[in-house]
What does this fold into?
Amino acid sequence: MGSELAIIGAGGHATSVCNVAISAGFNVVAFIDDDNQHQTLMGIDILPLRTIIERSDIDHSDNLYFAIGIGSNFVREEVFSEYQNTFSIDRFPALIHPTAVVSIKTTLGLGTILMPNVAVGPNSHIGNF
It folds into this structure.
C-alpha cells in the first residue's frame, strides 16, 4: 500500500498491530500515546497526538492512516469515539496480515485487524473495529 500509518497506543497489542501493518505494506511513522512522550517502541517514536498533527515530516494528506493498538475492546471503542472528532472513519483501514485467510463473501469493517494465521469463514461479517 505504501501509505503512512500511526498506531494509537504503545503497549503489547500495539506491537502486534505494528507487525500486521508493516506486513500489509504500511509505513508505520509513530505510536500515539500522550503519556509516553520522548520514547520509542520497536525503534519507532512514541508521540502525543498533538505532535503527530504538527510534524511536517509526517504526510497529513490522504496517505496518513490510523490503527488502534489497544487490546481492550471497551477502551478501543472509547478511543475511537474520541478520535472520530479529529479524523474521519475512513482514516482507519482494515489491516490484514498476508498469512490471514479471508473466505468468500466475507465483509470486514473499518479498523478491523486480522492477525497472522487467522482464518475467517465464508459469509462472515466483522463490524468496525
User: Anything to note?
Assistant: The first strand starts at residue 4 and ends at 8. Helices lie at 12-23, 49-54, 73-83. The two ends are 20 Å apart (CA to CA). The chain is about 20% helix and 25% strand.
